[in-house]
Amino acid sequence: IARVESSCAPSAVNARTRSYGTMGIKLDGSANVDHLESAELLDPATNIDLGARHLARWLRTCGAIVPALAIYHAGAKRCSDGKGDGYAKRVMGWVRWAKWKINKLKEKRA
Questions:
Q1: Chain center to CA of 56
Q2: Given strand 25-26, what is the order of strands in its sheet?
Q3: pLDDT tens-digit readout, 6-30
Q4: Which residues, at least 6 apart from 96, have a Cβ–Cβ distance to it below 8 Å?
Q5: Pairing of strands 13-14, 25-26
Q6: How many C-beta atoms lie closer than 10 Å to residue 16's C-beta?
Q7: Contact between 88 and 66 (Cβ < 8 Å)
């Protein structure tokens, strides 16, 4: 998620969507359960914690990663219309790449 939302940049700001930080937490979005200000959302630990809790909530609800990612990105109301599908595919592509990279590093060490 961090790679897709911000290229892992803690200081990322998207003025169009009003999302902040590593995990792209929206100032007025459902992930900002603590109603933090933009400066607080730029703290990496806070931002990642909020993003992880938000994703965990949708994982419990959906029971699967792809729909949970779609909701993380597009919101529960827009998930059913497929608006988050491309986002979920991009995130899962980075997950596959990271697993491949980890395996390559393990092979080098062996």
A1: 11
A2: 13-14, 19-20, 25-26
A3: 999 999 999 998 899 999 999 888 8
A4: none
A5: unpaired
A6: 5
A7: yes
